[in-house]
Fold Cobyric acid synthase.
Amino acid sequence: MSGAKLGGGLLVAGTTSDAGKSVVTAGICRWLARQGVKVAPFKAQNMSLNSFVTREGAEIGRAQAMQAQAARVEPTALMNPVLLKPGSDRSSQVVLLGKPVGEMSARGYHGGRQEQLLGIVTDCLEQLRGTYDAVICEGAGSPAEINLRRTDIVNMGIARAARFPVVVVGDIDRGGVFASFFGTTALLSPQDQSLIAGYMVNKFRGDVSLLEPGMEMLRGLTGRATYGVLPFRHGLGIDEEDGLRVSLRGAVRESVVAPPVGEDVLRVAVCAVPLMSNFTDVDALAAEPGVVVRFVDRAEELADADLVVVPGTRGTVKALEWLRERGLADALLRRAAEGRPVLGICGGFQVLGEHIEDEVESRAGSVDGLGLLPVRIRFEREKTLERPSGTALGEAVDGYEIHHGVAEVLGGEPFLDGCRVGSVWGTHWHGSLESDGFRRAFLREVAAAAGRRFVPSPDTSFSSLREEQLDLLGDLIEEHADTRALLRLIESGAPADLPFLPPGAP
């Protein structure tokens, strides 16, 4: 490992949510992997509806799965031991070591289990440290959430337990980055401040020399260095924890692949249902030249769509009510009657069925679905977590399943353990569109049904695009961060002489 000791590590924190922690963590992992370092990502606690199933059947955040890919290692439950999946504004499903253990309110979660959870996450981290040369941890939100510090297991709580140095990332595109760096540090206790090694500026536009006086003043005020200024780049996000971003679309449109093929464009509308999960399923569609993907919440926005996708959701019954309230359900029924393509994935598949029995997720009991597919759904307490493989449209397909609803398929044409009736498809398989041959065959059928002359590119490889993106993140760190200083932090920890900034939090 280029001189770093076994079991070294670093925690990447942020001044805010969406400051760039996930991207910086993935970039550091890819940069280290290129140097021959055996590195693993780690996030003690993640709150996200965007999840993934590992080969051992554990559910973890998709961001950690992509960070593992950046590190060129297989993702495991050790890399994200606690996953919180919101089911409302006040409660979440708690997934512990890859398996759901129940629903809990925010007050209940922060009220009594933190000591036990801290023991679990530190044990996972120690297992990774015993296996890998370096572990790059990602924090959550901000380490200066002083109202939650007593129960924190993902920011300074895990950093202090592991004695890991912390680099704080700030999004300068939002403004106020120097105040955010200073304020984040000053709010922390002396013990926590002793681990804040320095800062990293993210999303900078312009001449870096103009920023240098501010970084020197910041060093004078805090005694801490800035470890890099990362330039703004479109399309460099990895799979988002939440939000409505198509992760690869920006990069693809900036000539990662050839211009659109054929004489036409396919327009894909994704219904932005409540508690939407695994919306990254449509990334592979957006990666195709000539395919335009947008998220919609009004019935009229389906009018010009060649394909409508009803994505996964943590609230199937709530999504069904939302579709009906907004007139989207009627629009989907009209589309099906006209033979215009609709694809339902996981919760979206369940919505398209005839009937739902739910005493688990919504506890709504018996609910009529849209009736577009001959399927009956029964929610079970045990969650299905699988990595299926199969064939569809004459092509090999891989996917992953994350759902409580069990489908009884009563008719139609078999389709990825779901079914197809005319131009309406439904499946529980997430990630199926990442299989290149199947995606092309599916888009050819969509184009034919929509009367388009669209031809999918034979050269688009989703896995290659993903690798190119991760390499771009590694380039960002290698070219714009102080990599020697980062290696010293990973090897030796935070400098011993870091000053304390009053007032500090208790």
Summary: The domain at 258-459 is CATH 3.40.50.880 (Rossmann fold).
